[in-house]
Amino acid sequence: MSYQLIALDLDGTLLNSRKEIPQENIQAIQAACSAGKTVVFNTGRAICELEDQTALLPEVQYAVFASGAGLYDIQEKKAFGLRGIPAGQVQRILRLARTKDMMPQFVTADRDVIQASHLKNLEHFHMGVYRPLYEKAMTLVPDIFAFAESCGDPFLKINLYHADPQERIRTRAQLETRELELVYSEVSSLECSAAGVSKGSGLERLCGILGIPAEACIAVGDAENDIPMLRTAGLGVAMGNAPDHVKAAADRIVADLDHGGCAEAILLAL
After folding, report:
1. Are residues 190 and 240 in the same domain?
2. What's the mean pLDDT in 133-152?
3. Positive or negative CA dihedral for 190, 133, 266, 243?
4. Which residues, 6+ apart, have CB-to-CB distance to 77 below 8 Å?
5. 3-state SS of 80-145?
6. pTM (two decimals)
7. Three-class secondary structure of residue 31 per DSSP
């Protein structure tokens, strides 16, 4: 198979454990683009959280963001193909979130929003490693529930970060419905998206726009929310730091995030 497109997760994949892009990954992407390959980001992040990566990699034109809920033309700075969570399901999530010790995070096309008081307590929600990013990219509001009730923009994704990682298992059971996609990410998060939305469906939609068959894609990831894109792509590659059930969904396993795994995966297309 001659692979035409390489879809990269960011956290745990393209980025190392210090949340930096290693030089070897940058060089591998540059080599792939010079060889005529298309490299895209496929991430759970919001657009506002991609500035550092897009500045370092101007060769990358497109991103699948918010775990498949939106597509983004980086060069044109234009989001499109948005898939919002139904309003009734947003209300269900809000009602449950009010009863638990958690940090809700609301992703729209142009904002990533958390409550200001939660920024002081990221470690409580097991998200301290993201403090520099949150301080730079987040929109802070005094009351996240008041914001959610008054916001007129569709919510593309809602992350529910739990103080007790085991509590998210109960949260998932309480929110389970055909109208939502629910998936674990990070140590403590439950990602909530509209039914049918995933990194796999986002990759399929972008491939359709670019005229590239899914079987001509390599997808690289490390987490549960990456499994749909690993299964969608012609070659699914799991990072060495991925849990066993993610590795089981992949066709190939490479080294971990701190030992050249992502560059190894990218170079499979050459």
Report:
1. no
2. 97
3. negative
4. none
5. ECCCCCCHHHHHHHHHHHCCCCEEEEEECCCCEEEEHHHHCCHHHHCCHHHHHHHHHHCEEECCHH
6. 0.95
7. helix
